[in-house]
Write a structure and sequence with these properties.
The complex is a heterodimer.
Chain A: H1 10-15, H2 18-23, E1 41-42, H3 51-59, E2 63-69, H4 77-85, E3 100-102, E4 110-117, E5 121-126, H5 133-136, H6 138-149
Chain B: H1 2-5, E1 21-27, E2 32-39, E3 50-54, H2 62-70, E4 73-76, E5 81-84, E6 94-98, E7 108-109, E8 115-116, H3 117-134, E9 143-148, H4 151-163, E10 172-178, H5 184-196, H6 203-213, H7 223-230, H8 233-245, H9 265-276
Parallel strand pairs in B: 3-6, 3-9, 9-10
Antiparallel strand pairs in B: 1-2, 2-6, 2-7, 4-5
Classes of the chains: A alpha+beta, B alpha/beta.
């Protein structure tokens, strides 16, 4: 169904309005829209972590950002932190000894922790955010993705 | 085809939209089509990078992510009107949302085939190929694949395929994964320590688990294998009790309020948490009630 505690069914009401569906070019035979549903899915990679894919992407020189809200229990911050650690890359020592990234519109302005690794791999935590970072911390999330895609300091 | 997908009159808007918005379907196969929404960047879309966003689940809609997380339109007044999200990611680039795999949201498969992680990655790859057929000029833009949650599986598997297809995706630059489940073993190995260190598991239970299951080293304790394979029944029971009795409130945000629709909150949350963790329902779940 929908993530419990989402506290809103605005989207379901909106996207199932006939005028909205027409405006958004939804197929006339498409079923009632809902946030999440059972799609007869078999998790074939449940037992096999994503390390091989990450390593191949790193070998090809692709840039990688892994971030995690630090008060999420569904996918907790230790999981992703350890996953990135276990990629086996060397962390880049920060000459300013800075272990935080910042968002200046918030007090305190520490947006979370940052660890930068060799080969363009970054790990960021988002302080005070749950599972859905762009919802819980929209300003920090936009700053983070903007600076990632433009290759700037976070 | 793309002109037919241009959204020109979206209900609930009472302001002029400062970017182009396309919505429609991307062909995946003879039987499958994925629904997409594409929001061009607020500024300089002709130069801005292209960013794909995938929500997780599996089975959750990226439109849900767009409308509640990083999309430009958010909804108010019980589905009547829209407002512009000032922190939408199309302020960083041109953002594409695809509802995937087939069966999610408005996406469909008339053959109703089985879905796997591999088939989903292949289908997403095919959908992206069709996107670049519709919007060939975006082939020249820097391209990033991003996503959340089970996107920890979707994103790297799709990116692996895209990185090997340099002809179709010559400017693929990288990935971003938020709160991703890249390893279920690490998920279960870290969950109990995470809950304990947030004060959500009883001290006595934790000490017993550490002593009897983890050689007093909970930091590297293999909870996943203890629970599924190697553990004694006593350990399995204690670990299950830790999951079931953790008072998390909203699993998705420890400190968020959770409002339900009348059913006793503790029962809903415990049931949900146990289900999310892949556990059977505990007989002891009312012990602390």
């Amino acid at each position: 169904d929908r993530p419990i505690c989402a506290q809103s069914n605005n989207d379901r009401q909106y996207l199932n309005r006939p005028d909205v569906r027409r405006a958004l070019h939804v197929h006339p035979d498409a079923p009632t829209w809902k946030e999440c549903g059972d799609v007869n899915y078999h998790m074939t990679r449940h037992e096999v972590p994503m390390f091989p894919e990450f390593h191949r992407l790193i070998e090809k020189g692709k840039r990688i950002l892994v971030y995690n809200g630090d008060v999420d229990t569904v996918c907790n911050v230790l999981l992703t932190s350890k996953f990135v650690e276990q990629l086996g890359l060397a962390a880049i020592p920060d000459p300013k000894n800075r272990t935080f990234w910042f968002h200046d519109e918030e007090i305190p302005n520490k947006a979370g922790f940052i660890t930068r690794y060799e080969k363009n791999v970054d790990f960021l935590t988002v302080r005070g955010s749950g599972h859905m970072v762009p919802k819980d911390k929209p300003k920090e999330a936009l700053q983070m993705i903007y600076n990632f895609v433009y290759g700037r300091d976070y | 085809a793309r002109d037919n997908d241009l959204v020109t009159d979206l209900p609930g808007l009472d302001f002029k939209v400062p970017f182009r918005h396309y919505a429609g379907y991307l062909n995946v196969s003879d039987t499958k089509a994925f629904y997409y929404n594409f929001f061009e960047a607020h500024e300089n879309p002709e130069f801005a990078p292209l960013i794909l966003w995938l929500n997780g689940g599996p089975g959750c809609s990226s439109m849900f992510g767009s409308l509640n997380e990083n999309g430009p339109f958010h909804i108010k007044e019980e589905g009547k009107t829209l407002y512009l999200n000032p922190y939408a990611w199309n302020r960083a680039g041109n953002v594409l949302y695809i509802e995937s795999p087939a069966g999610v949201g408005f996406s469909y498969d008339t053959a109703n085939g089985n879905l796997t992680d591999e088939s989903t990655a292949d289908d997403n790859h095919a959908a992206l190929e069709d996107f670049f057929r519709k919007f060939p000029e975006y082939r020249d833009h820097d391209f990033y694949i991003t996503g959340e949650s089970y996107g920890g599986v979707y994103v790297p598997m799709l990116a692996d395929r895209v990185a090997n297809d340099t002809k179709t995706f010559p400017n693929f630059k990288g990935i971003a994964v938020g709160n991703g489940v890249m390893s279920f073993e690490l998920l279960y190995n870290t969950l109990l320590p995470f809950l304990y260190h947030h004060g959500l598991i009883q001290e006595r239970l934790w000490i017993n688990i550490a002593d009897k299951c983890c050689n007093n080293n909970t930091y590297t304790c293999p909870f996943y294998h203890l629970q599924n394979r190697d553990g004694t029944q006593e350990c399995k029971d204690m670990i299950n009790e830790g999951y079931h009795n953790a008072e998390t409130g909203d699993d998705y945000n420890l400190y968020s309020a959770c409002y339900t629709d009348g059913e006793p909150q503790s029962r809903i949350l415990r049931s949900h948490f146990a289900k999310a963790a892949g556990l059977p329902q505990s007989k002891k779940q009312d012990k602390n009630g």
